[in-house]
Structure formats: structure tokens, C-alpha cells
Amino acid sequence: MSQNISDSFAQQLQQMRTETLAQLRAQRGGAVGRAEAAANQRSTESDDWAQAGSERDLAFAMDERESAELVAIDAALKRIADGSYGLCLDCGVAIATARLHANPTAMRCVNCQEKVEKAGGGVAAPSL
Fold first, then answer.
1. Nearest of 75, 35, 42 to residue 56 by alpha carbon
2. Predicted TM-score of the model (pTM)
């Protein structure tokens, strides 16, 4: 992958990272951590326990999704830095540029991703 294309994806990933961090901060009520946000949520819950529980579960699910997205973004940025960005982690084939434009954190080519999903492996991010 050319340096210009890598730089373009790096900028896009950095923007995604900034936006995801902002979403996490907003969900947590600013700069508070996850535990503090949970404590604040409990202290402001209404008498409707079912609704409060559903709202809390939704907030935690969104937090987990965005945390996983940050891991995927950081992994993609690491691949850019080490020169392996755009190559399938499983087979080493170049990932289609159109796929990377649609999903800049893609780790696998379409064929390998389909195999992982059929095997029940989902799209788990690599450990850093």
C-alpha cells in the first residue's frame, strides 16, 4: 500500500478514534470513569426498576461496543505503523481498498472474514 493511501487511512482512523473517545466521554458524563458513571447512574435511577435496569444495560452495551471499536482502531493504527495495514491477518492477501474504505479497521479479506463468521468466530479484534 502506498504511503499516501496509508496516510489517508491513518487520518480517517485518527478521526474515528477522536469521535469514539468523545462518545465514550459523553456517555460517562464527561471525564468520569466507568465505575463512577455506574455509581452516578444508580444514584439517579427512578422508582421504575425495570426501566432503570434496561437503561443501564443499554448504556453498558454501548460502552462495551465503543471500547471494542477503540481496540480495533488502535490495532489498525498499529498495522499502519508496522507496514502490515491492508494485508489480511489470516492469508496475507491485500484487502480490497473498497473494503478498507467501508471499514478501515478490517483485519481480514472478505473470504477469510466469511470463514471466521461461519466458524462462529465473529469479528473479534486482535489482542494488542
1. 42
2. 0.67
